[in-house]
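User: Design a sequence. Structure:
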């Protein structure tokens, strides 16, 4: 059987941590930032963990991660 391919978009967006949890970047921080408050933009910094309801779908996109 041939090797399975990873989804290129998922490779760029997600990182699997050593503990097995999946790290993702925060959304809503790319453009149209003038109407967003400074507090809101500050809280969107950094990374977050993929929610447990979506982990199965992300793992399917990254078969060797």
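Assistant: Done.
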């Amino acid at each position: 059987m041939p090797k399975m391919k990873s989804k290129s978009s998922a490779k760029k967006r997600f990182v699997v941590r050593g503990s097995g949890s999946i790290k993702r970047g925060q959304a809503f921080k790319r453009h149209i930032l003038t109407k967003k408050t400074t507090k809101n933009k500050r809280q969107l910094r950094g990374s977050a963990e993929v929610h447990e309801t979506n982990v199965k779908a992300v793992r399917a996109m990254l078969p060797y991660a």
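The chain has one domain: 8-61. DSSP finds three helices and three strands in the chain.
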